[in-house]
Amino acid sequence: MSEICETIIENNEYFAKELKDLLDLKYFPVAIKFIINEEDVPEDLENFDGKIRHCEMVKKAAEGSSFYATSKNQACKGGSAAIGLEKIPKKIVTGEFYFNLKRFKSIGSAKRTLNEIPKIDIINYGIAYAPLNEARFQADIIVLFATPKQAMKLSQAIVYTLGGRINANYAGIQSVCADVVAGPYITKTPNMSLACSGARKFAKIKDDEMVIGLNGENIGCVVTALQAISS
Question: Which PANTHER family match (predicted)?
Answer without folding.
Answer: BLL4979 PROTEIN, DUF169 DOMAIN-CONTAINING PROTEIN
